[in-house]
């Protein structure tokens, strides 16, 4: 399955590039920022408190780390040719969970979840007209998740501070469209799917942002 995903990702990234490196085109640099909406698929088990494998599940057997939450990101890239570029960026999102009951009988008086992601993408670019371009990307992102909280219940003698951490690099693919207001300023909408880590299995995100091209 992973091999198929990598092959598909590479195919998407090169779809629009073609013979891009053979074109006479001066590289252009750009910077930007975006607002994001992230849909997270969380794990159902983790080391919580003094129990070895605590189910991180609610009464409906769903992961308490699941959810849709806002985030923000920044990016910088270089358009090497008309149809190909590279981009690196970073993003972050936070969530606070209050008064949640786990299936083990533990109660969460508070739980803070922070996700940060850094990535590097290859970008395929297909001009539709002077103002509009279609985008496709493939790359690698490193998602880091940190969970801090306070739990109490029958499995713990007293309230206890807990902390969970996990970081892992995974394949990411994306697609989108961008509109150029003029030669330098533009807006874009991108959607991405990225493999996650032991706490957050995967992330689907949509980002709407502005960029400035030098």
Specify the helix fraction band.
Answer: under 10%
Through-space gap between termini: 40 Å
Radius of gyration: 20 Å
Could you give a short account of the major beta sheet? 8 strands, antiparallel, barrel
Q: What sort of overall outline do the alpha carbons produce when their principal axes are compared? A: elongated
Briefly, what CATH class?
A: Mainly Beta
Overall domain count: 1
Low-pLDDT regions: 5-22
Mean pLDDT: 83
Separate helix tally = 1
Strand-and-helix sequence, N→C?
HEEEEEEEEEEE
CATH-assigned fold name: Porin
Q: Label the structural class.
A: mainly beta
CATH architecture: Beta Barrel
Strand content: over 45%
Strand order of the largest sheet: 1-4-5-7-8-9-10-11
Kindly state the number of beta strands.
11
Could you please describe the fold and organization of this structure?
The protein has one helix at residues 2-14, and strands at residues 28-42, 45-46, 54-55, 67-79, 84-97, 100-101, 107-127, 132-153, 156-180, 185-195, 200-213. It is mainly beta and 214 residues long. The chain has a single domain, classed as Beta Barrel (Porin). Strand 10 (185-195) and strand 11 (200-213) form a beta hairpin. The radius of gyration is 20 Å and the shape is elongated.
């Amino acid at each position: 399955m992973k091999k198929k995903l990598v092959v598909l990702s590479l195919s998407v990234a090169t779809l629009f590039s073609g013979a891009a490196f053979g074109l006479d085109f001066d590289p252009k640099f750009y910077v930007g920022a975006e607002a994001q909406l992230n849909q997270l698929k969380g794990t159902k088990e983790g080391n919580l408190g003094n129990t070895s494998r605590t189910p991180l599940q609610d009464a409906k057997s769903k992961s308490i780390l699941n959810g849709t939450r806002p985030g923000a990101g920044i990016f910088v890239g270089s358009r090497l040719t008309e149809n190909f570029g590279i981009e690196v960026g970073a993003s972050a999102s936070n969530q606070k969970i209050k008064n949640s009951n786990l299936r083990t009988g533990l109660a969460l008086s508070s739980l803070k979840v922070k996700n940060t992601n850094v990535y590097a993408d290859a970008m395929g670019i297909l001009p539709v007209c002077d103002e509009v371009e279609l985008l496709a990307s493939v790359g690698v992102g490193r998602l880091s998740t940190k969970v801090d909280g306070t739990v109490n219940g029958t499995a713990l003698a007293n309230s206890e501070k807990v902390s969970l951490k996990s970081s892992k690099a995974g394949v990411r693919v994306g697609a989108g469209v961008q509109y150029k207001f003029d030669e330098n300023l533009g807006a874009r909408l991108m959607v991405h799917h990225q493999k996650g880590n032991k706490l957050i299995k995967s992330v689907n995100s949509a980002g709407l942002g502005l960029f400035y091209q030098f």
